[in-house]
Amino acid sequence: MNSKKIFRNYQDYVMPTYSTTPLVLARGKGINVWDDKGKKYLDFFPGWAVSGIWHCHPLVVSAIKKQADKLIHVSNNYYHEGQGKLAEEIIRHSFPGKVFFCNSGAEANEGAIKLARKFGNPARNEIITMERSFHGRTITTVTATGQKKFQKGFEPLPAGFVNIPFNDIDALKKAVTPKTVAIMMEPIQGEGGVNVADAKYLAKVRQLCDEKNILLIFDEVQSGMGRTGKIFSYQNLGVVPDVMTLAKSLGGGFPIGAFVASNKVADVLHAGTHGTTFGGSPLACAASLATFEAIKKEKMLKNATVMGAYLLKRLGELKKKHSVIREVRGVALMAGVELNIEGPTGPWSAPVDGKKIYEECLKRGLLINCTQGNVLRIMPPIIVKKKEINQAMQILDQVLAVHGK
Ligand SMILES: *Cc1c(COP(=O)(O)O)cnc(C)c1O
Fold first, then answer.
1. Does pTM surpass 0.85?
2. Which of 21, 139, 336, 349 is deepest in the core (most CB within 10 A)?
3. Pocket test for ligand 1, best of 51, 134, 145, 223 (most atoms within 8 A of CB)
4. Concatenated DSSP letters for 352-383?
5. pLDDT at 343 exceeding the cut of 80
6. Which residue's CA is the closest to the ligand 1 atom numbered 6?
């Protein structure tokens, strides 16, 4: 099928909810994807961080093939080996507790919110979230999301959410009431522009939660699975949450989400209170177990730390050279480059002003992302090599030299 026909099919039959780039992707392997004409791209934003350990990692591919031959799906009223094994793997890498499996980040957050409400009700049901956060697109997670542009037109929004500035302990203390049951945040905001939580701030948040028996929920959907050099990003910041949500690269490209609750609240959602048909299927669990195995076997955490430091150093050099760069921030391979141009006010965060930079990189064979209109998001697979970073930096350097005015 030629690309014209593909675009036509989308135009005629697919809901126009995404701001798309006219690029048809046909194949992926490692850090590369190829379009339908055979042009190769270096992917420094693989599927919104979903393909975090490469496109089609061989261990993930073979695990999926093997499992698909055996058993694809069973209902959650029965046991299967993979789900328990994967739960153990996640707990071993995080904190003592239990896991619920679902299929996406929004569902993971929705579940965490239900858990918090069940824990606090009837006396407490208010959840505090952060400005510029992103927690998903369901009615409830879009309400938790601290960005009006995602909420507009979907009113009435559910009650029980309070939104405050990020990294501001005074604002948080002021917002806590006797009804507060949880504080929910991304340790590193992704969609909001790669904003990192301050470790001192987080320590105070943890203390406040302990004093008032408030649950601390970390949304690790984007920052988790090794991108920051630790398997979960909170492990760089010295604070352990009560609840953590996961998705994106948890399945190495295959859809799977999860939320983890510490032992204190692990049994709040007892039989009959929550569920999902597809969550934690044999196929999804096999893909995710293979992802953990690959991360360990190929020492990807170490690579993310070393290559992350290198990436941030190289971006820092670009900042010295190009005045259009206002700030470089992030942790390891979760990097943001804020440009000296104002963000958009439109209904969707697709590149508007930073779009030119994004498009010119694309023309030269480099895929990145631009969020909030002026923050380039650079999040290569966590097994990226130095040579590939050099290649990407060279392209970005050229683009900024011509278009960064
Ligand atoms: C992508 C994302 C979500 C939503 O995940 P979906 O799988 O798209 O529902 C939630 N939180 C964060 C931090 C995300 O980056």
1. yes
2. 336
3. 134
4. SSTHHHHHHHHHTTEE-EEETTTEEEE---TT
5. no
6. 105
